[in-house]
Amino acid sequence: MDDLYRQIIIERYKTPHYRGHLDPHDIFFEDDNPTCGDHIEITVQVEDGVVKSAAFDGHGCSISQAAADLLIESIHGKPLDEVKALTKDDVIELLGIELGPVRLKCALLSLKVLKAGAYGLGKEEVSDALVE
Amino acid sequence: MPKTPLDIGLIRADFPILNRELASGKKLVYLDSTATAQKPIAVINAMDEFYRLNNANIHRGIHTLAEESTAMYEKARQQIADFINASAAREVIYTRNTTESINLVAYTWARANLKAGDVIILTEMEHHSNLVPWQILTAERGVRLEFVPVTDDYLFDMDAYRELLKLEPKLISFTHMSNVLGTINPAKEIIRLAHEAGALTLVDGAQSVPHLPVDVQDLDADFMAFSAHKMVGPTGIGALYGKMDLLQSMPPFLGGGDMIRTVHLREFVANEVPYKFEAGTPAIAEAIGFGAAAAYLQNIGMDAVAAHEHEMTEYVLERLAEIPGIKVFGPEAEHKGAVASFEMDGVHPHDVAQILDSEGIAVRAGHHCAQPLHEMCGVQSTTRASFYLYNTKEEVDALVEGIYKVKKIFG
Ligand SMILES: Cc1ncc(COP(=O)(O)O)c(C=O)c1O
What is the distance between the alpha carbons of residues B333 and B313, in angstroms, rounded to a whole number? Predict the structure, then answer.
């Protein structure tokens, strides 16, 4: 348990570094986790195919919010192609914890939103396949 | 309240799962009976024995096993009818669960009797299963939905209801007990007023039938929907109670075997009630388990169950009130079943539930299939602890200690 609630997760949940909404932005996407109502929106500014700045907003449990904050931090300065290639393992590594199937969905919501935005998908095209 | 007449130690001994230890080495504290109840040995054995000794398909066989299975399946229907005091076993239709029971009424009675503009009254505290079937009907038929609000005290708004009845509704479909607030609605009065206004009533009994003494004749309910799994029975089976004349007047639900009297290539004659509504091979072992569950609860006595749960409700509300930063949604104990849905300052319900789980305490986090109600309460989701006949005050104490651990971690 004390593993699951590592200090960094509690800290990023309470005081996220990248919470906000960028305007103007090149990428915007939002989605919910229907089982718990968690919500994440992501805005990204891209310059020459590289992430110049990014932010997230939304609400949810500590895992979903800390994962979003750490994920956004990790993509600053990254080529968009690398962002598109991110996987579930990248998020698990960022969090540094083992997660059961339910909490994994919380952790991966921000990646799903980010990749859907990066690929320019429509709402109906979003699926868990994006983060497998 | 008189001292509880239940011997909780004896009751707990009937439920093998309550002795289980979890990976954390903690003993299970099961506070999620509103989602599904645990099962006593009597129910587990009834189903196990059926498969070991009697198993055969019902209604169409002459051989011994088929006769035994049919008799057991029908005996269970009688046990369920007795449990809710239906005037005849035939008024109990087997379904998969409460959700299917409500859909049965929406697809048969409502589609045969309602037209565009007809009014159905629901409440703001409904489970999704008593909202979505009517929303589908609205999209298809132009039926109009109206909602009885919830008062500031989390009660059914009787005054608003009386006003809505002036719209000459055709049906009032309402939950007898809210699975989030615990609010126990005054069903008898709601039904009396509905009948005065010329409307029929469908009671969502998913929470009331397991936890309160329910007498469909005394309530004068036209329909009552409930699930076995919430009343110590198996999953996969539920019931719709309906008054005989109504059931007889309704068209069938699903088409297929068992629901017919005769079939020709281009037409069929429907079977009699209740078989008319039971197409295909049903959940036979589950029906038998359902009957055993009803008999188990009836033997203990629902007055005693309700009295024990009332004591639990008072105690959990008192203990949660001691903790700073906790807000419980729902009415005073007097009008409330043993459900405590709460919000905790600065901590998401998922995190609360996860930390409680590490202490062996099973609670539920989410919107509990009542999103509109959560919107009304101004929250996304809540943590819900719910109690049944086998829960103890010590388990409430464990919950409170667990909540203090959450506070420490999120400090
Ligand atoms: C008030 C209420 N109605 C309906 C249901 C749906 O029951 P089931 O899932 O067994 O169909 C529930 C279950 O949570 C409930 O609490």
Answer: 6
For A66-106, what is each residue's pLDDT tens digit? 999 999 999 999 999 999 999 999 999 999 988 888 888 89
Contact: A63, B350; criterion CB under 8 Å: yes
Q: Pairing mode, if any, of strands B171-175 and B119-123? A: parallel
Q: What is the predicted pLDDT for the residue at A2?
A: 56
Ligand 1 in contact with B185 (CB < 6 A)? no
Q: Does domain A2-120 have CATH number 3.40.50.300?
A: no
Judgement on whether residues B51 and B61 belong to the same structural domain of the protein: yes
- The residues of B whose Cβ lies within 8 A of any Cβ of A are 24, 346-351, 354-355, 358, 365-367, 371, 374, 380-381, 409-410
What CATH number did the domain enclosing B355 receive?
3.90.1150.10
pLDDT computed for residue A125 by the predictor: 86
Quote the pLDDT of residue B261: 85
B37-B254-B176 Cα angle (round to 5)? 35
| Rg of the Cα atoms in chain A | 14
Mean pLDDT across chain A: 91
Q: Is B227 in the pocket of ligand 1 (CB under 6 A)?
A: yes
ipTM, 2 dp: 0.83
Beta strand B364-366 with B361-362 is unpaired
Q: What is the DSSP string of B144-203?
A: EEEEEPBPTTS-B-HHHHHHHHTT--SEEEEESB-TTT-BB--HHHHHHHHHHTT-EEEE
**A&B contacts, CB < 8 Å:** 45
Q: What is the pLDDT of residue A126?
A: 85
Residues of chain B with pLDDT under 50: 1-3
Q: Do A1 and B355 touch (CB under 8 A)?
A: yes
Cα of A49 to nearest chain B Cα, Å: 36
pLDDT computed for residue B2 by the predictor: 45
Residue B347 is given by DSSP the state B
The active-site residue, picked from B18, B28, B260, B369, is: B369
Residues ≥6 apart with Cβ < 8 Å to B275: B59, B258, B259
Where helices occur in B269-326 by DSSP H, the ranges are: 284-300, 302-321
Q: Is B369 a catalytic residue?
A: yes
Question: How many angstroms does the Cα of residue B133 sit away from the middle of ligand 1?
Answer: 13
- State whether B36 and B82 are in the same domain: no
Q: Does residue B1 lie in a domain region?
A: no
pLDDT of residue A131: 86
Domain with B293, as residue range(s), is: 44-299
What pLDDT is recorded for position B369?
86
At residue B308, the 3 state secondary structure works out as helix
The model carries a pTM of 0.93
B27 burial (CB, 10 Å; 0-12 / 13-18 / 19+) is middle
Whether residues B192 and B100 fall in one domain: yes
Residue A1 pLDDT level (bands cut at 50, 70, 90): low
Do residues B93 and B198 share a domain?
A: yes
Give distance in angstroms: CA of B382 to centre of ligand 1. 17
